[in-house]
Amino acid sequence: MSHTPTRSDFDQYMTPNYSPQQVIPVRGEGSRLWDQEGREYIDFAGGIAVNSLGHCHPVLVNALKAQADKLWHLSNVYTNEPALKLARALVERTFADKVFMCSSGGEANEAALKLARRWAVEHHGEHKDKIISFSQSFHGRTFFTVSVGGQPKYSQGFGPVPGGILHATYNDLDSVRALVGDDTCAIMVEPMQGEGGIVPATPEFLQGLRDLCDAHDALLVFDEVQTGVGRSGELYAYKNYGVVPDILTSAKSLGGGFPVGAMLTTDAIATSLAIGTHGSTYGGNALASAVALAAIEHIDTPEVLAGVKKRHELFREHLETINRKHGVFQEIRGMGLLIGAQMAPEYEGQAKDILPLAIDEGLMALIAGPNVLRMAPSLVIPEADIEEGMARLERAIAKLVAKA
């Protein structure tokens, strides 16, 4: 007899490091989802900025199906056509000359950090090993990346953290100047902090980091796992600022829902990843590469990117309208379709309370810490879905206010 999984199965069979909502979605199309009971939801969460073209977009489905009949996986003993096509597409569209492929953002950031350290040792010596990151940053869940991330709660309880990691204050260049020196090998930064509260960098801050790296022979690493592949309204957020990094990491929207990651860099830096120095079993997987190529080619068009910027304004207008009525937000911020609404002081820490209320109204959303409601929908979400989703959000917030 077949068994229909329930939410209680999660508690029985899976490790308790997550606490998912009670509903179990079983089908998606575009920016809408349906659960086991057939109830419909509008998706403002986007798989945490992953589902760049929504659910089951025909461009991605067709790419996956076509590749599924050809070749799934080899190993890095060989290469394959989809991986080579994806690498070329990324190089032609960015500052980069070389691409390392992997399966996730955490892997991409791990590769970036290892490359930065190895490059520094090879070119300057063992003393040049310091990595500067920022408080409230997030770079992944490997032990190295979670230590570089500026949220200690994610690294506590696992023993001694890797050394040589310093944390400055985001958007505060003086705090970086106080830490940077000739022993600095890299500064790692998100052009917009995601898990840290949807906080965009100022242009002066990113340019200042570029100047400090140049002055101290350090590498500037942009973590674009969450901001990349159209999320900011440009293919990569660095293009909004005109500040070019030495290394860039990409994942999430890159695969449109298929697990894939990439690290991009220049010829001069890439030489430090000599044969055998790093690897990824699934990196360059043919299925993942075929889907990611389809996503990149569809998203990196004037129509889609301009649409992201237009939709940003629609989200902001609706959120401001809701706030004029209910007064729950202190600030609305973000770039493109990565948007955060910080709770007002009287609703401090209550962002998470909106999520189950939104589910009850048929809307899926996110938080970025306890005090910021986050939205990261499909880059091509229909305007009608934005309108209806915001109506549902307004009803959820009205319930929150009524409880206060």
From TrEMBL:
Residue spans crossing the bilayer = none
Location within or outside the cell:
Cytoplasm
Q: Which amino acid positions bind N(2)-acetyl-L-ornithine, per UniProt? A: R141, S280
Q: Main subcellular localization, coarse class?
A: cytoplasm
Pfam families xref list: Aminotran_3 (PF00202)
Residues involved in pyridoxal 5'-phosphate binding: F138, D223, E224, V225, Q226, T281
Q: Name one GO molecular function term.
A: N2-acetyl-L-ornithine:2-oxoglutarate 5-aminotransferase activity
Asked whether the UniProt record includes Transferase among its keywords, one would answer yes
Q: How does it assemble?
A: Homodimer.
Q: In which pathway does it act?
A: Amino-acid biosynthesis; L-arginine biosynthesis; N(2)-acetyl-L-ornithine from L-glutamate: step 4/4
Q: Which keywords describe this protein according to UniProt?
A: Amino-acid biosynthesis, Aminotransferase, Arginine biosynthesis, Cytoplasm, Pyridoxal phosphate, Transferase
GO cellular component, alphabetical, reads: cytoplasm
What is this protein called in UniProt?
A: Acetylornithine aminotransferase
Leading EC class: transferase
**Free-text remark on how the cofactor is bound:** Binds 1 pyridoxal phosphate per subunit.
Which family is it part of? Answer: Belongs to the class-III pyridoxal-phosphate-dependent aminotransferase family. ArgD subfamily.
This enzyme catalyses: N(2)-acetyl-L-ornithine + 2-oxoglutarate = N-acetyl-L-glutamate 5-semialdehyde + L-glutamate
* Gene3D superfamilies according to UniProt: Aspartate Aminotransferase, domain 1, Type I PLP-dependent aspartate aminotransferase-like (Major domain)
> Which co-factor is required?
pyridoxal 5'-phosphate
Other remarks on record? May also have succinyldiaminopimelate aminotransferase activity, thus carrying out the corresponding step in lysine biosynthesis.
